[in-house]
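Entry:
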Amino acid sequence: MNPPPVLDGARVLWWAWAGEVPFGELPGAQGDDRLVYGFAVCWYAPGQLYRFTCNKHWNVVQDADHSNEDDAKADIPKQYDVERVVWHPWVSPDGNVSLT
């Protein structure tokens, strides 16, 4: 499932989706926020870059700031099934890629 173009007020640059089986569980979270289905690398207008951890509705349940896109994509916590993470550039419905 593709993410929306904006998560938590930040523009999506890259995303990864688990499909039917979540990547893993977020320790301490409950309900829909417990199971992690998506990751996204997102950019806030002032130049802040974050890797978001998301539930099955693309709601952000955890974040981590990063200095560049490659580090953000590589920094997946070890409790998740990292081998299944496949990054995709966010593409608008008209086919434009939103990379900086």
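Strands lie at 6-7, 10-17, 24-25, 35-36, 38-44, 48-54, 60-66, 88-89.
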